Amino acid sequence: xxxxxxxxxxxxxxxxxxxxxxxxxxxxxxxxxxxxxxxxxxxxxxxxxxxxxxxxxxxxxxxxxxxxxxxxxxxxxxxxxxxxxxxxxxxxxxxxxxxxxxxxxxxxxxxxxxxxxxxxxxxxxxxxxxxxxxxxxxxxxxxxxxxxxxxxxxxxxxxxxxxxxxxxxxxxxxxxxxxxxxxx
Length: 184
Known about the structure:
Layout (H helix, E strand, L loop, with lengths): L2 E7 L7 E7 L5 E9 L6 E7 L4 E8 L5 E9 L4 E5 L7 H9 L2 E5 L7 E8 L12 E4 L12 E7 L6 E4 L11 E4 L1
Parallel strand pairs: 1-7
Antiparallel strand pairs: 1-4, 2-3, 2-5, 3-4, 5-6, 8-9, 8-13, 9-12, 10-11, 10-13, 11-12
């Protein structure tokens, strides 16, 4: 059995958080485990994954309320080891602020389908075509459509609009007006 411990800088003082390991290749959730803030460094969380296949992953850190706190990438190998997941701004309030500001938030408008998500609000607003291309859209844990909660899809195109329409890999269910999402 191989155990991979991932360390991640995130918002300090969070209790009851979860670290999720998502495959970048398949966009599937691989594992979800509790994350604990270290006693020796505020804002540094650790989580241990067991027998995760060697691959590239997106790591998502969720608060106890289901809100996304942080996201990063990590490469895991088939060994027992500890990995740092960071974006070059490790344990820095400026880096944390920059990372949070790089996450887009939105609400679904009318007429979406399983491959097209029409937004009614997007922050930051869209400014050019394909601004969000190759990013991931993930529906909130408390979104209106229960079947979409936590579901993630790759954005292959986005329209040139303040509230863009996103072309995405197939979702299991079409979003409805009022569903909420983040883009990372």
